[in-house]
Each structure stands twice: as structure tokens, then as C-alpha cells.
């Protein structure tokens, strides 16, 4: 008895009523996989090939094309890793607007996003066509309070499935900033502390603002060392930059407001701190300084307000 583990129905978007023009299925019987296409002979998949590998290797199964309406159904055990295996094919160099795509996976809307490895991946989206996170681990936001034109820039880390973590950056739309590529991690390969430490030290917000990674390491350490709370940790740029504070550098001055929202278990936070400390001596010094400030007066450790020059800690 065979079972269908994956199927994709394609319709041309420029055909009236979206008439179906291809229906491809992947069926499994015992340890054998078969690709079935309406109107064609069945094709046996080489023995030992996993369903995910078959989807990735076969264009008829694993490629979603521009100007097509694609409806995908996939078995529950395969669905969480679909974003890592499906591919997107476009015409030309420009990615069409996301509202021009009509792709569902198990009835959930998906749209293509460019990744840091310069590939296009289909990710779940909400009604605003932003990435739909199932769980949010952390988010960092930045704004320049001394600028009349500054909006909010945010980078978010979380899960889109049980198997895939994503980092997405949203920049102030008023400044005409480019869309930053998303970062993807496979949870079968990477541990949560590794993913979080990777994200803290290299993300779309850092890339856009050219912010030193040491600032976000300090922000993370400050948040980790705070008492348990529901409020985010807020620090100011000159405090986070320390001896490298420079009013002329974006994010490093006393009017640069940084905020971290953290929703991770304490053991994951501690494991991330340990990993950061082992990664670079400069990170270790920062984390140790937050954990054990010694005789340093706390007012010298926390950023002054832009107006009064006294301690400003909104958490």
C-alpha cells in the first residue's frame, strides 16, 4: 500500500480560472519512492533516496516558478523542513513583488525571500507578507532619538517551524533602505546557543548600520544578567560602545536607543554567553564585566540620557 507524502499542483496565473496544468506526486511504498505525474509513466526514485532529497533533486517536485499558482501538500513529518528544500525559479534578476506570488504549503501562504547565501527560499507569511514566526526568541530594535527622521529598525530571531530558525530585518521604510536578506538555520545541524550567538554577532541590522558586534554582545549580556521580567532591556549607544563611543557613528552616540526583547530559557541564555566568551576574548571581557563589575560605580556602566548626562536604563 503506497501513501502520498508530497504533491504539488501548478496552475498558470495568466490562464482564466487558473486551470491546472501539472499535478506531481511523490508516493512511498515500504522503502521505495515513486514520482507520479498525470499523463506520464511513473518514475522510480533511486533506492536509498529520502523523500526530502527526492524533492530537492527533482525540479518537477521541488521548484516553484514565477507566474504560477502553486498548491503544495506534504506529510507532517516532512513539512517543518520544507523551507530548506524547496527552490524558487524567477525570470531575470529581479524578484517579483511578494503580493504577485500565490503559493501555499498545507494551506499556509508562503512567499520567496532572498537569503544571506543568495538563494531564494519560500517562507510562511502573514497578511502583511512579513515572515510569520511560530515562536520568537529575541528581537533587537534601534532608533535615533536625536533625529527628526529616524524610524525604528528591528531584527527578529525565531522559529518558523520546529526545524528552521530565521532572522528577519525590518528597516525604517521612510529612508528607502534596501531589503536585507534573511538568515536561515537548520535545527538538525545547529544548536540553539550557536544560532543565538551567531545572530547576536552577525545579523541584518549590524550589516546595515555597520554597528560593532561588541555592542550587541554587551546588550545581550546586560539583558541576561537582569532580573526576570516582562519588560525589554534598553541601553543607549554610548554606553554599549564604551571606549569606542562616537557621536558621529550611527548607533554609538548618547541619543541612540537600543532595545532587546529576550524570550529564551535561562539555560540557553547561559550557554549562549559561554559560547560567546569562548569565541572571542573581547566578548569574554565584556560578559565578565557585566557579570562582575567589581568596584566600578554602576553609573559609569550605564549610558547617560541624551539631555542630562545621568544614568539611563529603561529596564
Q: Concise description?
A:
By secondary structure, the protein is an alpha+beta fold. It has ten helices and 16 strands.
Features:
six-stranded antiparallel beta sheet; alpha+beta; 30% strand; 25% helix; 16 strands; elongated; 315 residues; eight-stranded mixed beta sheet; 2 domains
Summarize the structure in words.
This protein is α+β, with helices and mostly antiparallel strands. The protein folds into 2 domains: 3-123, no CATH class; 135-301, no CATH class. Helices cover 25% and strands 30% of the residues. It contains 10 helices and 16 strands. It has helices spanning 51-57, 59-62, 82-85, 192-201, 204-209, 213-225, 237-241, 266-279, 281-291, 298-301, and strands spanning 3-12, 20-29, 32-37, 43-44, 63-65, 68-74, 87-89, 102-105, 108-114, 120-124, 135-144, 153-159, 164-170, 183-186, 233-236, 256-262. The protein has an 8-stranded mixed beta sheet with strand order 4-3-2-1-6-8-9-10. A 6-stranded antiparallel beta sheet has the order 14-13-12-11-16-15. The protein has a two-stranded parallel ribbon with strand order 5-7. A hairpin with a 5-residue loop joins strand 9 (108-114) and strand 10. Residues 295-315 have low confidence and may be disordered.
Amino acid at each position: 500500500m503506497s501513501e502520498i507524502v508530497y504533491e504539488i499542483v501548478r496552475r498558470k496565473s495568466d490562464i482564466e480560472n487558473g486551470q491546472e496544468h501539472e499535478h506531481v506526486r511523490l508516493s512511498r511504498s515500504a522503502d521505495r519512492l515513486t514520482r507520479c505525474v498525470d499523463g506520464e509513466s511513473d518514475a522510480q526514485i533511486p533506492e536509498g533516496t529520502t523523500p526530502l532529497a527526492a524533492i530537492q533533486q527533482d525540479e518537477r517536485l521541488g521548484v516553484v516558478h514565477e507566474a504560477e499558482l502553486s498548491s503544495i501538500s506534504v506529510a507532517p513529518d516532512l513539512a517543518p523542513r520544507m523551507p530548506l528544500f524547496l527552490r524558487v525559479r524567477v525570470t531575470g534578476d529581479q524578484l517579483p513583488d511578494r503580493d504577485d506570488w500565490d503559493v501555499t504549503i498545507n494551506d499556509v501562504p508562503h512567499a520567496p525571500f532572498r537569503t544571506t547565501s543568495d538563494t531564494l527560499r519560500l517562507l510562511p507569511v502573514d497578511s502583511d507578507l512579513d515572515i510569520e514566526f511560530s515562536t520568537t526568541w529575541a528581537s533587537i530594535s534601534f532608533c535615533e532619538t536625536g533625529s527628526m527622521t529616524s524610524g525604528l529598525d528591528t531584527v527578529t530571531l525565531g522559529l518558523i517551524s520546529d526545524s528552521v530558525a530565521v532572522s528577519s530585518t525590518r528597516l525604517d521604510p521612510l529612508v528607502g533602505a534596501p531589503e536585507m536578506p534573511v538568515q536561515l538555520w537548520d535545527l538538525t545541524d545547529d544548536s540553539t546557543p550557536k544560532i543565538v550567538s551567531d545572530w547576536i554577532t552577525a545579523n541584518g541590522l549590524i550589516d546595515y548600520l555597520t554597528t560593532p558586534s561588541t555592542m550587541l554582545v554587551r546588550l545581550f549580556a546586560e539583558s541576561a544578567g537582569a532580573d526576570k521580567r516582562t519588560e525589554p532591556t534598553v541601553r543607549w549607544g554610548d554606553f554599549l560602545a564604551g571606549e569606542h563611543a562616537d557621536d558621529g557613528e550611527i548607533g554609538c552616540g548618547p541619543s541612540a536607543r537600543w532595545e532587546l526583547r529576550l524570550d529564551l530559557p535561562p539555560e540557553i541564555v547561559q550557554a549562549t554567553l559561554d559560547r560567546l566568551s569562548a569565541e572571542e576574548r573581547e566578548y569574554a571581557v565584556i560578559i565578565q564585566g557585566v557579570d562582575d563589575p567589581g568596584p566600578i560605580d554602576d553609573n559609569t556602566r550605564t549610558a547617560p540620557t541624551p539631555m542630562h548626562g545621568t544614568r539611563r536604563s529603561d529596564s
